[in-house]
Amino acid sequence: MTYETETRSIFVTGLKNAHAMENQALSIMKPQLSRIENYPEVAAKLDQHIRETEGQITRIDGLLADLNEDSSSLKDMALSFTGAMAAMGHTMAGDEILKNSFANFAFENFEIAAYKSLLTIAELGGFANATSALKANLEEEKAMAKWLDENLRSVTMKFASLKEAGETAKI
Ligand code: MG
Ligand code: FE
């Protein structure tokens, strides 16, 4: 007989939400990567973080398996937060690279908050064996958020320079 505590239930739900969040991250980043032409540094970073994100999903799968929770059947419902961003219609605008930069920065900070919260729940529930995986995911989100923060100026300047040169049709 399994002893179900409320904290365990909160933790499992949080991990499943994180699983959905990471799949949403992939669905946000992959279309951007396929469209970028003029910003190779952004493309390289997105490519790197897509691969990191796939590793994050594997870590979450492992945590759910440790809790005897099957992640293979997760529906991964879209988060309303990202649904709103997707509706912004970035692909039709000449300044897609800027709007995507804002959205990516917002999403990474959403992820940072999610992992900080999950680490707190893990602490409360005594799930010490989950800490290293959650911290690994958190550190990757922090690094991505930092990169986006530090590169917003150069991306903006390049956008302005390309616009001046009449390259606005390409992102
Ligand atoms: Mg992530
Ligand atoms: Fe991320």
CATH fold-level assignment: Ferritin
Q: State the shape.
A: elongated
Instruction: Give the cofactors and ligands.
Output: magnesium ion, fe (iii) ion
* Strand runs, count: 0
What is the CATH architecture assignment? Up-down Bundle
Q: Segments where pLDDT lies below 50 for 5+ residues?
A: none
Tell me about the largest β-sheet: none
Structural class: mainly alpha
Highest-level CATH class: Mainly Alpha
Strand content: under 5%
CATH superfamily: Ferritin, core subunit, four-helix bundle
> Residue-averaged pLDDT, rounded?
88
Which percent bin holds the helix content? over 70%
Integer-rounded radius of gyration: 18 Å
Structure annotation, total helices: 5
Q: How many distinct domains?
A: 1
Task: Please write out the topology.
Elements: H1 6-35, H2 40-66, H3 80-86, H4 96-125, H5 131-164
Helix pairs in contact: 1-2, 1-4, 2-5, 4-5
Residues 25, 49, 53, 108, 111, 141, 144 line the site of fe (iii) ion.
Would you kindly provide a brief summary of this structure?
Helix content is 75%, strand content 0%.
How would you characterize the overall build of this protein?
With 171 residues, the chain is mostly helical. The protein has a single domain (3-164), classed as Ferritin, core subunit, four-helix bundle (Ferritin, Up-down Bundle). 75% of the residues lie in helices and 0% in strands. It has helices at 6-35, 40-66, 80-86, 96-125, 131-164. The longest helix has 34 residues, at 131-164. The termini are far apart. The model has no long low-confidence stretch (mean pLDDT 88). The structure holds magnesium ion (MG) and fe (iii) ion.
